[in-house]
Amino acid sequence: MFTQGEVYCLAVSSLNEIPWDVLRAHARNATTKSYAPYSHVTVGAAGYTSDGRIVEGSNVENASYGLTLCAECSLVSDLTRQGGGHLVAVAIVAGDGQPIAPCGRCRQLLFEHGGGEMLVDAGDDAPAHRLRELLPGAFGPNDLGARSNQ
Ligand code: THU
User: Fold this and answer.
1) CATH tag, 15-147
2) pTM of the model
3) Is 55 touching ligand 1 by the criterion CB < 6 Å?
4) How would you write the chain as a 3-class SS string?
5) pLDDT of the chain along its 150 residues, tens only?
6) For ligand 1, atom 6, which residue shows the shortest CA distance?
7) Is the minimum distance from the CB of 76 to ligand 1 under 6 angstroms?
8) Which one, of 41, 20, 21, lies nearest residue 31 by Cα?
9) Ligand 1 closest atom vs CA 59
10) Does 93 sit in the ligand 1 pocket, CB within 6 Å?
11) For residue 147, what pLDDT is reported?
């Protein structure tokens, strides 16, 4: 659909290109779609793709607690459902509208679709993180071919 390398680098070359306010607004709206009857922690996530689309996700809990789907998981589903793409930035917020740290599993999920350069919102008072800072030494798609015995 697109060449990941070049498009990706252009899209994240400047923090100013990321529409953080728009992303945060989408993430906050997504918290209203969350299903969180057990923790009551509503979470919304919004991602910006290298071709300028916005994808969203909300957490979906389950009576079997460990099966809960995080908002980022739902976001990745939305991305795939839209036909795929490459994430350049994500904003994740809780029901209070403030940034929430992505859990370990979600850092790995996001890495698959955004790589280490993807930006993760840290709020107004701090610069955005790169995913490689939140998930150093990540295992990713490139490791599969390199480590396969076939
Ligand atoms: N949660 C997310 O949606 N994303 C994260 O990265 C951290 C945690 C959700 C899962 C659960 O529904 C609630 O927050 C409390 O853990």
Assistant:
1) 3.40.140.10
2) 0.90
3) no
4) CCCHHHHHHHHCCCHHHCCHHHHHHHHHHHHCCCECCCCCCCEEEEEEECCCCEEEEECECCCCHHHCECHHHHHHHHHHHCCCCCEEEEEEEECCCCECCCCHHHHHHHHHHHCCCCEECCCCCCCCEEHHHHCCCCCCHHHHHHHCCC
5) 344 443 333 344 455 689 999 999 999 999 999 999 999 999 999 999 999 999 999 999 999 999 999 999 999 999 999 999 999 999 999 999 999 999 999 999 999 999 999 999 999 999 999 999 999 999 999 999 878 888
6) 102
7) no
8) 41
9) 3
10) no
11) 84
Q: What is the pLDDT of residue 16?
A: 64
Q: Tell me, yes or no, if 117 is annotated catalytic.
A: no
Determine the distance separating the centroid of ligand 1 and the alpha carbon of 51, expressed in angstroms: 27
User: Domain segments of the chain: what residues?
Assistant: 15-147
